[in-house]
Amino acid sequence: MLEILNFKTSKPFTLGVELEIFLSDTETFHPSNSSKIIQENIPEQIKPFVQKELLQFMIEVITPVCSTPEEVKEKLKEILKPIKKIGKENNFFLYAAGTHPFAEHRKVAITEDKRYLRFLEEFQIVLRHFIICGLHIHVGFVDREHAIKAYNMTINYLPLFLALSTSSPFFDREFTGLNSYRSKVFEQLPRAGIPEYFDSYNHFSELISSLKENGVINTINDVWWDVRIQPKFGTIELRICDSINDLRRIELIVTLFQALCLYAQDAYHERFFHQIVKQNKWNAVRYSLDGEFLFKYGKTSIRNAIMDLITILEKRGIFEELKTQQEVKYLRDLVMRETISSRMIKEYRKSRSYKRAMRYGVLE
To answer: What is the mean pLDDT of residues 31-58?
Structure first.
């Protein structure tokens, strides 16, 4: 087996988050190519948790391994505090949303990095349109077969997590009419979007080995599925979410995903037809929580599907086992609230101002 497929054991259901963030000029709201300023001024103890990204007006904030969703939120606060201070001193602010309204793909500056330049050579104009930021959530597993169970179940529910996170209705100075245009940009890559189910870890290994041996990928990091297995961390990684400025919303989405991963260990779940999952994802892209959620036969709303999932997890004692029972009420409240994208769209329709709509993506 390839070394990149060796599954590292993790403490079960531990957590980690990666949050991609845009840097915007305080006065104009336009992109600010200030990632280098952050790297040069960030405190040494924070530096390992702040990484460069594809574009020079983006950064990625990474938490250490956490035991609880609340710890994830607190670590993000701790890491973001000095970055905000640097921004204030250098005339830029942090904007955490799936896309940036003012960024123009012909003008963006790509970070000088061998990996990014290699991707630019391969993907050409597609990569130049990658003015997008996401939220990635890792959950740890004791072994690879436990990870596969959670991975397969997550595929069915991917659209629910997207709907809870939508924050990208604008792109290249245009209102797209969608709640998550970031999702449509990402799907242009050949190794992105909704992945396939795997019967076992060996089944997954066969695919990755084929891609690696044929020179398509160098590592698992060159596969950008909406959920992927990360052997080197001993996790599965939820990647479908738009970037989010509200740390409390992040905490609650992490809570739900952690619970789903535990539930997957003992629960039977049928595999949805691929077209059904694709349609459900489109419904979340287009309508967010107001979209429909299809099963093999019949349908409900995305809101109801999330509420039903929360009820199942609660009845099975999943939240209680993870010691997150106190969050169930707040999870239900979150499902009934407006999404970030819906607030942005409402403001834009009222004011016709991208600047005013952007306030809902300023990092709290």
So the answer is: 95
Residue 213 CA to chain centroid, in angstroms?
Answer: 28
The neighbouring-strand residues paired with 95 are: 22, 362
Query: Of 231, 166, 164, 218, which Cα lies nearest the Cα of 191?
Result: 218
CA dist 201 → 99, 145, 156 (Å):
34, 6, 18
Q: What does DSSP assign to residue 220?
A: G
Predicted TM-score of the model (pTM): 0.97
At residue 251, the pLDDT reads 98
Per-residue pLDDT at 82: 98
Tell me the mean pLDDT in the region 198-222: 96
Which option is the CATH number for 3-361: 3.30.590.20, 3.10.580.10, 3.40.1190.10, 3.90.180.10? 3.30.590.20
Q: Name the strand (E) or helix (H) holding 95.
A: strand 92-95
| Nearest partner of 269 among 147, 159, 156, judged by Cα | 156
Q: What is the mean pLDDT of the chain?
A: 96
Per-residue confidence (pLDDT) for residue 108, from 0 to 100? 82
Token digits of residue 168 = 């990208």
Chain centroid offset of residue 71 CA = 18
